[in-house]
Design goal:
eight-stranded mixed beta sheet, 297 residues, 41% helix, globular, alpha/beta
Length: 297
């Protein structure tokens, strides 16, 4: 707010008031990954935003990835990262590396939250039987220890929220034999948001949001109701990377999440801009009975 007058600062705070009232004591699941994790300044801003939400009376839950750091460690041990249809081929050694790296990332985020004076608890999907999985195939092909979430037990998350912790979750699940599985962080965040009946699910990505035409940056869509999102999915105009995200958004809204947001995690303080301002950024997918609320031009 450097350069703003005291009155302008007050107006910014007043603009946030209806959103604080609307989402007070509501659960917001934040899927955190991509470039916003690789850049230390952006990482600090995302964590500051999450802490701000917590102290403003919201109940944020962070679900994080760590794909770039996993790939870096795989290279360090002399292996080459391999992907099929966007999913990491995960043999036993890769699974061991992924679990180690994700837990390392998890505790670094816990420390960042703690540095700001808020209690965080870092867990994986194996804690409290949170994320039960089955093997996920890619077009019928076995790609190793990649999990598809079949069941979520949110009791541990509810307990942490009740004790005033900010839960930070890494997407490692387990199967009936308690074998570890690497779970796509988008899928994990969606499953957890559904189980928590979260008010909001936020995907921090490396794109500004959903475009009607990705090559036309003026075609960014600010808000989509559920049926409009379904029409976009079936239209064939969505790029390959956005399609699974939109499917997750529709799945979450159909399961009771009121609003799902897709936004550019590379934008400083994107969470605060999306949640607390009339204009907002990115794209919001809404249930059919949810009113649109952006009043900006």
């Amino acid at each position: 707010m450097t350069g703003m007058t005291s009155l302008e600062k007050a107006q910014v705070l007043i603009e946030a008031l209806p959103y604080i009232q609307r989402f007070n004591k509501k659960i917001i699941v934040i899927k955190y990954g991509g470039s916003a994790m690789a850049d230390e300044n952006l990482k600090r801003m995302v964590i500051q935003d999450a802490v701000f939400l917590k102290l403003a009376g919201f109940k944020p839950v962070i679900v994080h990835g760590g794909g770039k750091e996993i790939s870096s460690w795989i290279n360090k041990v002399g292996k080459k990262p391999e992907f099929v249809n966007g999913l990491r081929v995960t043999d036993a050694e890769t699974m061991e590396i992924a679990e180690m790296v994700l837990n390392k990332v998890n505790k670094s985020l816990v420390q960042l939250v703690g540095d700001l004076g808020v209690k965080a608890a870092g867990i994986s999907g194996k804690d409290g039987f949170l994320l039960k999985c089955e093997k996920k195939l890619s077009d019928g092909k076995d790609i190793g220890f990649v999990g598809n979430v079949t069941e979520v037990d949110p009791e541990l998350i509810f307990d942490l929220l009740e004790k005033d912790f900010l839960p930070i979750i890494c997407p490692i699940g387990f199967d009936d034999e308690h074998t570890s599985y690497n779970v796509n962080a988008d899928d994990a965040a969606c499953a957890i948001a559904k189980a928590l009946k979260a008010e909001k699910l936020v995907f921090l990505t490396d794109v500004e949001g959903v475009y009607r035409d990705f090559n036309d940056k003026s075609s960014l869509i600010s808000e989509l109701h559920l049926n409009e999102a379904k029409q976009l999915i079936t239209s064939g105009i969505m790029g390959g990377g956005m399609l699974p995200k939109l499917n997750n958004c529709v799945d979450a809204v159909e399961s009771g999440v009121s609003r799902v947001h897709i936004m550019d995690g590379r934008t400083p303080h994107c969470l605060l801009l999306e949640i607390f301002t009339d204009k907002g950024i990115g794209t919001a997918i809404l249930s059919e009975n949810e009113p649109e609320y952006y009043k900006g031009e």
